[in-house]
Write a structure and sequence with these properties.
eight-stranded mixed sheet; alpha/beta; 19 helices; five-stranded parallel sheet
């Protein structure tokens, strides 16, 4: 064996050890650290609410529950918070924790010194009283952990943060979910990435500042309109799920983005099939029907399109499950609009929007071949499809992100012919009055319904808002707003 051959073996051995060491280090990184390492990290505006909880509610022995859809970034956000705001933390992931670790939350709560010592050894993390955080991830998968929270909060040594999604709960014989709702809890919804967050992640800080200033001064966007709208169209298709956004910003490859989104849709299908108390067939049927219902003229959900014999009470639980799982935003008809629209809403007259418009695009074209040119044509509106449904879905998404947990529209029909004689796409509250919102493909579309609505409910109604794909302008008491500016306007 020559010295040269030995030298090659030595070099390869060093390389092999180096690779093993690097892989070991990678396995020790959590989701937030990996997102930073690979450029997948997206700064979220909701982070400030977590800091407020730490400084206020946590001091009053309240835990924090981050709720949201699957793959919306709850765990990564919790880990970012833990890294930045605490001296140390332990994350217990109930989708991966061993039975021995889970049993600590059942058998060891009478001796919390022993309980915390066990956690420290299992996760190789030192805990500092008043300076450490315990993250209970996917907590809905192990209900005794929810029951244990009261004991941990009374002890008060460490802050407690939970994450969870109803979509991953597998129900069998549970008749009472009250154990899932401890009173000592502050809840924060984690929703898809907004257009403003998307621009920030893209490095378009100047564009954000320009939109801020232009909307605040109620001016037209003029020459800048085209470039902003181009960014918005890309965001609309990519959507607001963190992995999809990160993939697009890093690769600019729409096929890869679509693969990420299709994986999320398939994950939802798997969740539907695992349900027991809610009919999985109903969930799948309702979910699949949303794009076609939104493409209809009145966009209202008709169960007869699933089955001519379908009844509201049979599908009601499935509708509520999709809403509670943060998969859809339901929008109800407010029959007598006021600052409390829920008081006069028709629970059987409903529209269903996706929590994320990018996922709506994906479900619509799920059965088409993945093709970069096709997706670019969608973004640039060259296929002459019904774009209104995506724009309207986005408005619902923004309203939800702005804190409207229930969405409302207004529709009046002729009692004899049952034809629609007045319809407003969305209602929101501004300055203690009802603000009617119409979503139009252009500023030249008919506003007959909006004018009738303002006359009928004069005194309750503030200026009308027309969301369109054209520049800002004011005509009397009607404001025409580019759709990309809605996140800044409300």
């Amino acid at each position: 064996m020559t010295l040269k051959y030995l030298a090659v073996l030595w070099e390869k051995g060093i390389l092999w050890v180096s690779v093993l060491w690097e892989n070991r280090k990678m396995n020790e990184l959590d989701e937030y650290e990996l997102a930073l390492k690979y450029g997948h990290y997206v700064e979220r505006d909701v982070y400030i609410k977590l800091v407020e909880w730490k400084n206020e509610d946590a001091r009053n022995h309240k835990c924090l529950f981050l709720r949201g859809a699957r793959r919306v970034g709850k765990s990564c956000l919790a880990l970012e918070f833990a890294h930045k705001e605490y001296a140390s933390f332990i994350k217990v992931s109930f989708d991966r924790a061993s039975e021995d670790t889970k049993n600590l939350f059942v058998d060891s709560l009478e001796n919390l010194d022993y309980f915390y010592d066990q956690l420290s050894i299992v996760y190789n993390k030192k805990l500092y009283e008043g300076k450490s955080l315990i993250i209970l991830d996917e907590i809905q998968l192990f209900k005794p952990a929810r029951q244990a929270i009261k004991t941990l909060l009374l002890d008060g040594r460490y802050d407690i943060l939970e994450t969870g999604s109803l979509a991953s709960i597998v129900k069998k014989d549970d008749k009472d979910d009250s154990y899932l709702l401890p009173s000592e809890e502050m809840k924060i919804d984690v929703l898809p990435i907004t257009f403003k967050e998307y621009l920030r992640a893209s490095g378009k800080i100047d564009m954000i500042d320009f939109i801020d200033k232009t909307v605040a001064e109620r001016k037209a966007f003029s020459a800048a309109y085209r470039n902003i709208y181009k960014e918005f169209r890309e965001y609309l298709f990519v959507g607001g799920m963190p992995k999809s956004v990160a993939t697009y910003l890093k690769t600019r490859n729409l096929v890869k983005v679509e693969k990420e989104k299709r994986e999320i849709i398939e994950l939802y299908y798997d969740d539907f099939n695992r349900q027991r108390n809610v009919n999985s067939l109903y969930l799948t049927s309702l979910f699949n029907l949303i794009p076609s219902e939104l493409s209809n003229h009145d966009k209202r959900f008709k169960l007869s399109h699933i089955n001519s014999n379908a009844r509201e009470r049979e599908y009601g639980a499935a509708f509520n499950w999709l809403k509670d799982a943060y998969i859809v935003n339901l929008c109800f008809n407010s029959t007598d609009p006021s600052v409390v629209p829920l008081l006069n809403s028709d629970g059987n007259d409903v529209k269903a929007y996706f929590i994320d418009t990018g996922l709506l695009y994906t479900l619509t074209f799920m059965k088409t071949e993945e093709d970069e040119l096709f997706y670019k044509s969608l973004i640039h509106d060259k296929l002459h499809i019904n774009e209104g449904m995506y724009m309207e879905n986005y408005v619902g998404q923004v309203l939800r992100a702005k804190g409207y947990k229930e969405l409302f529209f207004y529709e009046k029909r002729d009692p004899k012919t049952y034809k629609t004689i007045m319809e407003i796409d969305f209602l929101c509250i501004q300055r203690r009055k009802v603000c009617p919102i119409e979503v139009k493909s252009s500023d030249s579309s008919s506003l007959i319904s909006l004018k009738k609505f303002k006359e009928k409910f004069d005194g309750r109604v503030t200026s009308g808002l027309v969301i369109c794909d054209s520049d800002y302008k004011n005509e009397g008491d009607i404001c025409y707003l580019p759709i990309f500016a809605l996140d800044w306007y409300l």
